[in-house]
Fold these 2 entries.
Entry 1:
Amino acid sequence: MKKIFKSTMTLVAAIAMVSCGGNATNGSREAQELSGAGATFPLPFYNVVFENFSQVNSDVVAYGGIGSGGGVRNLRDKIVDFAGSDSFLSDKEMADMDPVVHIPTCMGAVVLAYNLDDVKELKLSGEIIADIFAGDIKMWNDERLVALNPDITLPAEAIIPVFRSDGSGTTFVFTDYLTKVSPMWKEKFGAGKSVNFPSGQAAKGNPGVAGVVKQTKNSIGYVGSEYAFAQKIAYAKIQNQRGEIVEPTAASISAAASGEIPADTRCSITNSDAAGAYPISTFTWMIIYKEQNYSDRSKEQAVATLDLLKYILSDEAQKITSEVHYAPLPAKAKELSLKNLKTVTFDGTAILQ
Amino acid sequence: MNDKIYRVILFIAALIMPIVCGGVIYALVTDAYDAFEHFGFLNFLTSSEWSYTEGAERYGALPFITGTLMTTLLALIFCIPFSLPVALFVGEYFKGTKIASVLSTVTDLLAGIPSIIYGLWGFYTLRPIIMALNISPQGSGILTASLVLAIMIIPYAASLSAEFIKMVPNDLKEGAYSLGATRAEVISKVVFPVAGSGIFSSYILAIGRALGETMTVTMLIGNTNNIPNSITSTGNSMASIIANQFGEADDLRLSSLIAIGLILFLITAAINMVGKIMIKRARIV
C-alpha cells in the first residue's frame, strides 16, 4: 500500500514538473491559455496563426468553430476571451452587451460555384444571381445569361440553386450583397444568416454545399472562397459596381476594402465601388470586450489576448492569409485596428501604451 | 456490511436514470416554453411558416412533422418486403441452420454501421442513381432519405420479428401439419396469427429508430423548410432541422428548435411505449 502511495506521489510530482516545463516562457509574462469561439469561415487561417503564435510565448489558443452566432453568445455570457464572427454586431446587439471592439483579422469572399458540362468560364451579374436564387431565372439558357456569356453555349436545362441549410455568415454576406444589388431581393428575402430561399436544395456547411454542387449537374451554389480555392471548384466571375467582370482572387478581394472604412471597422464591403474589387467580399472579425477585467480574468490573460490580436495584424501573420486561401487586410484596416486595440483597458487603464 | 454497501450503490445507480430522464424533460419543457407561449401550442404544431425576418419571426413545426412522418412511413413501407422474408428465412424456413445464422449475422451487421456511412453511401451512390433515372433533378429528397432509412431499420425489424417467429410453439405448427397444412398455410394461418403482435411491435421499434435518425436524413433530404408536395421533393425532418440550425439559433428560434425536439421526444416515447406494450402482450401468448 505504502509503495503504491509513494509511486503515485512520484508520478504526480513528475507530471507537475512536466507541466511546469510546458509553461516556461521566452517573454516577460507567463504563458496563458486563451479560448475563443465562433465563425468556422476563418478556422483554417486561425489554426495556422494560433500555432505560430504559440511558438512565441507558449500561449495556447483554443478556438471552437461553433458558428458566428454561437461565438457571440459565448462572448455575451463572458465565457471566452474572444469571439470570431463573420458579421459585425448590429447597433442593437451592441446595446445589449458591454462595450466591445471589432478587430478584422482577414478577408474572404463568397464565390458562386457551378456544375455545368463544358463551361469553363461563367460570368454573372448581381441581378442575375438574385433572380436565379429567387427562382425567377429558371433555365441556364435564359436570355440574360446568354447575353452576358456570348462566348459559351449554355444548356437548355433547369438551374438547381444550392444554399446553406444552417445559419451562416457566408449566407449573410451573400444575401447582404443581393440586397444591395436587387430591390426585388431586398423586398422579398432580405439579408440574414438564414434566409428562406424559395427553390433548390440546401446542405450543411461549405463542404455540404460544395459537395452537392460537385455531385449535381446544372447546379449553382454559394461557397466561401477559402473553401472553393482550396478545393479547386469551378466558380463564376462576377460583374462589380463599375461594370468590370472580376474573378475572385486574393488581390480582388483585398481591393474591395480599399475604399473608406469607418473607425470601428464595422462595415459591409459587399458591392464595393473600388476598382478591380470582387463584389461579394467580406472581413471576418474577432470581437473582444473593451474592458478586459471580467469573469476573474487575470491581467496577463488580457495582455495575451491583445498580443494575439497584434500578432494577427502583423505582416507576418497577414502573409499567411493567401497561403491558406484568404486575402490580407488592406493597410487602412490594419491601421484602424491597431488604434482600436489601444482603447482596450484592464480596470480602466489602457493595456497597450 | 457488504450487503448494505451494494444496496446503497445499486439504489444510487437506479436513481440516476429517472433523474437524468426527468432532467432532460424538464430542460426541454422550460426551454421550449418561450416558443409555445409566443406562438401558442396548437398554432406552433399547425403552422407551416419558418421565417427568419427579424422582428416578424414566424416558426411552425408542421413542415418538419410532415417530413419526419413521410420519411418514416415510406421507410417502413420499403423495409417490409425485405425484413419480413429475412425474418421468415431465419426464424422458420431455415431455423437453426448455418445459412440462417450467417444471414442473421449479416443483417445484424447492418445495424452496427454508423449512420454517417449510410449517409455517405446515399449521397455518393444512391443520389446519382436517382438523378440518372430522372426521378428528381436534384437527387435529394424525401424518397432518397426514405430508401436509405429503410435499409437502416431492416435489421431492427428483421431480427426481432425472427425471434418472435421462432417462439411460435412447435406443437401448434405440428398440429397444423398433421391436419395436412402446407408450409405456406402454416405460416399464414399459424405463425403470423401467433407471432403477429410480436412482429408488429418489432416494426414499431424500427419506426422509433427511423423517427429520430438525424445524420443520414440531413445529408439526403435536401433541407428545405417547406411541406413536401410529393415524395420526390425536398423537405426537412424534425431531427434534421435541429441539426442544421441549432448552431446559429438564439432566442425564439432556439426555443422553437427545442420545442420541435420536445415534440419529437414525445412522439418517439409514445411509439416506443406502444411497442413495449405489444411485446408484453406477445409474451403472454
Entry 2:
Amino acid sequence: MIKIHSLSKVFHEGTVNENRAINNINLSVKEGDFITIIGSNGAGKTTLFNLISGNIFPSAGRIEINGRDVTKDPEYRRAAYVGRIFQNPTMGTAETMTLEDNMTIAYYKGCKGLRKSLNNKLRDFFREKLSDLDMGLENRLKDNVGLFSGGQRQALTLLMMVISKPDLILLDEHTAALDPGNARMILNLTLKYVEEYKLTTMMITHNMGHAIKYGNRLLMMDSGEIIYDIEGDTKKSITREELIKKFEVIRKKEFENDEVLLS
Amino acid sequence: MIEGILVEGLIYGIMVLGVFITFRVLDFPDLTVDGSFPLGAVLMAVMLIRGFNPLVGFLAVFAAGFAAGTVTALIHNKLKVPNLLAGILTMTMLYSINIRILQNRANVPLIRTDTVFTYVTKLFGGTVPEGTVLLIFMIAVVLIIKVLLDLFFHTDIGLTLGALGCNEQMVITQGVNPEVLKIVGVGLSNALVAVSGGFAAQYLGFADVNMGIGIVVSGLASVMIGEFLFRSNRIALLTLRVLLGSILFKGIMYLGRYYGYYIKMTPNDLKLITGILIIISLILSKNKKMLTLLKKKESPEVLK
C-alpha cells in the first residue's frame, strides 16, 4: 500500500548546519498494518511523517501510496488519503468556529464548492457519531470548538479524521499533551476506530509499553534510520527490557564507531 | 445630516465588509484596499462618462477589485512575500493604474453625469424627499450584499475560508489548497472595496486617485468600533456588527468635522483622530481581555 524507496532528507544541505534527518530509508507498509514507531528525540520519526504527509519534500528517494507516486504531490492533495493527528490538540480544529462547522469542513476532503452541505440530515449524522465519543458533545453542535478541553478537541480531531475515511493515518504522539485519563481515553478511541474502519496506521509513541502492546509491527528509529523492524509473533513476545537493551546495544555500537573515528 | 451619516456609513460599510473579510476572517491584513477603493471610484467614473449603464459599471468594478485582490494573493502565495508587503506592492502599483484609467488625470468630476443615484431619484422623483430615497436605496443595496455574504459564508467554501484564518494547518489537513482560498478571500474582499469606491464616487460627485489614502485604517477602525457593540459567533450578526460599526465611525467623524472647530480641529486632523480611535479600541479590548482573565483566575473552577 505504501512503498518508500531509499528516502533521504537533508536539512541545510551544503552548510555547516547540514543535518541528515532521514538517511536512505526503505519501508513497505501493507494494507491494514498497525505500525508503532519508537526512537529517541531527533531520531527522525516526525520528519518521516512530514515526508509521508507532504509537509516537506525529500532530498532523494520516492514515496508511493496505493501504487501512485506521490513524491511531488503537495500536502493538501495527499491529505485526501493520508490523515494526520498532531501532538498539539489545537492543530486539528478551528477554535473560532462552531463544532458543526468544523465537522462540515471535515466531512469530505478536497476542493470545496459553493454548495451548502450542512443540513439537518448531516447534523443528525454528526450527533450520532459524536454520541459514540460519550462526551456529551452531541448537544453542543453550535458551541465554538475553542470552548472544549484538550481531550475533547483531540477526540473530535480523531472523529473528523475518520469520517473522511483516509487510507493511512499518521499519529504523532497524539496523546502526549493530555493528562493520563484523557490520554487513555484517546488511545482507546484510536484503537476502536482503527478496528472499526480497518485503518492502516502508523503511530509514534514514547511509551515502550504501548509500542509493544498495540499494533502488529514495531519500528525503532535512530539517526534517521530504521534500526530495528519486527512484526507478528516476534513483536508480540518481545519485552520492554529486551527492547531497551536492543536500543542500548545499537547506541553503544555507534558510540564506539565514533571513538574509532576520533582516535 | 443624520441621513447623510447613514448613507455614507452604508456606502463605506461595503468597504468595511471587505476589510472585515481580510483582517478578521482570513487573518490576512491586506493593504491593497487603499488602492482598490480609488480603483473602483475611477473605473466607475470613466465608465459612467463613457455612457455605460451603472449596473454594467458595477460588474466591471467588482471584477477589477477581484483582480487587484488576486494580484496581492498571488504575490503572497508564489513569492512567499509577507501579506502586508504584498498588499503594499499592489496598492502602489494601483496608484499608477488609477491615473492611467483617468487618462493621466488625478481626478474627474461627475456633476453632469447620470449616476445610479440620479436614476433612483428619478424613479421615485417628487413623492419622497431625495435624501430619504437615497437612504432607502442604500439600505436595500447593503442588505442584499450582506445577506449574499452571509449565505456565502455558510457554503462549504465559505466555512473553509473561516477556518483558514484560524488554523491554516487544519485546512491543509482537510485537503484544501490554502493558496486558492486566499485568492478567493482577498479577491472577494477587494471586489467589495472597489464596489464601495464605485458608490462613493457617484455619491460624492467625483473620483480622485487620492481618495483611498487611509481607507484601510478607517475600515479597521469601523470593524473595531463594531466589535464593542456585541459578541457573537454567527456570521449574520458579525456582518451586521461591521455595518453598524461603519455607521458609528462616520458619526464620530461627522462630530469631529463639525464640532472639532471649537477645539481648533480641522478636517485634516481626522486621520490622526482615526488612528487614535484605533489605539483606544486596542487598549480597551486589551483591558477587557485582562479583566476576563482576572475573573477566570478568581473563579474556583480553574483553581482546582
